[in-house]
Amino acid sequence: MKTDGFLGDDGDPPRRNTSAIRLDIPSDIRNRTTGSHQPTSAIPPRRQQVQVQTKNVPMRPAPRPTPPAKKKSSEEHFHFNVHWLLPVGVTMVILVILWMVGSAALAWGHQRLDDLQYGNPRTFQIDKAVGHDDSLKTPSHFIALNLHSQIIVVEFMGGNPQKAINYVTPVFIAGSNSDQAPVTLEFRDANGDGKLDMLVHIHLSGQDQVSVFINDGKKFRPSNTSDKITL
Fold first, then answer.
1. Which of these, 143, 200, 142, lies nearest to 173 by C-alpha position?
2. CATH architecture for residues 120-222
3. Which of 17-31, 83-97, 140-154 comes out lowest in average pLDDT?
4. DSSP label at 5?
5. Which long-range contacts (CB under 8 A, 24 or more apart) does 203-210 make?
């Protein structure tokens, strides 16, 4: 190394401008080791192989793939899963509903027909010679009326309004739509005395009710138990 020819006071070459100080450590101290620090080797210890004994396990055969299940047809599904009472019950319910609807429609149609024939309130009129100041040329005029479920018959003797007389049947019609029941009149000899009696027919739902008025020669009177009536 060049020193440009300059030497120190003691004849040694000048030192470098550095803060590190080199120490000369004897080789015996450098190689000395303490008891707590053991030299380590760069070679890792040899691993011991552990021999594991395995038993001879017999090999199981691979499972065979199962074929896909066949889908049942709709007929088989219906046959095996639906109880026989189900279609029977459904059929009965449908029949009941049809019967109810048909009955309601029939009743509605019958009532509309009565409206056209008898009006509202229900009214019936007829001319008949019954021997009450009348004749075949001037018969008596009768009007039968269902007024609020009460049957009233008006007789105009000989067709004269001044000789009008009212007859009220002893029967009051009960039930729903009782004021819609038609009423008609029939004249015939019911007790066998040779005179025409008046029969009032009340056409109820499912049956007819008859009230008999006996002809006494001047007017009609309600029948009683002593009258031998043949209907």
1. 200
2. Beta Barrel (2.40)
3. 17-31
4. T
5. 204/173, 204/175, 204/178, 205/107, 205/177, 205/181, 209/171
Q: Tokens 């015939």: give the residue.
A: 188
| Count of residues in the chain | 231
**Backbone φ and ψ of 15, nearest 5°:** -80, 155
Q: What tokens does 98 get?
A: 């049809």
Residue matched to tokens 């707590």? 36
DSSP string for residues in 144-185: EEEETTEEEEEEEGGG-GGGEEEEEEEEE--STTGGG--EEE
Peptide bond into 14 cis (omega under 30): no
Taking residue 201's Cβ as centre, other Cβ atoms within 10 Å add up to 17
- Residue linked to tokens 């440009």: 4
CB 132 within 8 A of CB 219: yes
pLDDT tens digits, 28-87: 555 554 544 555 555 655 655 555 555 565 667 666 777 666 665 555 554 557 788 888
Given this model, what pLDDT does residue 86 score? Answer: 87
Residue for token digits 């008609």?
184
Residue pair 108/169 in contact by the 8 Å Cβ criterion:
no
Neighbouring CB atoms inside 10 A of 86's CB total: 9
State the Cα torsion 188-192-195-197 to the nearest 10°: -40
For position 92, what pLDDT does the model report? 94
SS3 121: coil
Residue type at position 165: I
Confidence grade of residue 187 (pLDDT, cut at 50, 70, 90): very high
